[in-house]
Amino acid sequence: MFATNASAMAGGSTQEGGSGMEGIVMLVIMFAIFYFLLIRPQQKRAKQHKELINNLKTGDQVVTAGGMHGKIVAVQDTIATLEIASNVRVKVNRSSIVGTRTDQLEE
Questions:
Q1: 71 and 40 in one domain?
Q2: Which domain holds residue 32?
Q3: Residues 50, 73: one domain?
Q4: In the chain, count of helices (H) and strands (E)?
Q5: For a designed S-S bond to 70, which of 65, 82, 98, 107 qualifies (C-beta 3.0 to 4.6 A apart)?
Q6: Residue 105 has pLDDT above 50, yes or no
Q7: Is 91 contained in some domain?
Q8: Does pTM top 0.85 for this prediction?
Q9: Phi then psi for 17, rounded to 5 degrees?
């Protein structure tokens, strides 16, 4: 009794000769939209960040994720030493460096 009432409310018959491919096509379209709007740009940003981290060298002026600006004075495997003021050096993880600065820091 409940099944017939539910199908009557839904529009009569359960499936009117359709092959069911519409649902699969919609899923594929949804996945394509998610891929091009979310997944692909995130992968591109991750690749650029990895390149930045791998290309760090002594003398580069960088910005960390915490907003600290400094000049790299030493680079190790996973740690970079930044000079943020004269004779003030801080060790940070290389992965926390989010960008480089092209203009000079104030001394």
A1: no
A2: 19-55
A3: no
A4: 3, 5
A5: 82
A6: no
A7: yes
A8: no
A9: 75, 5
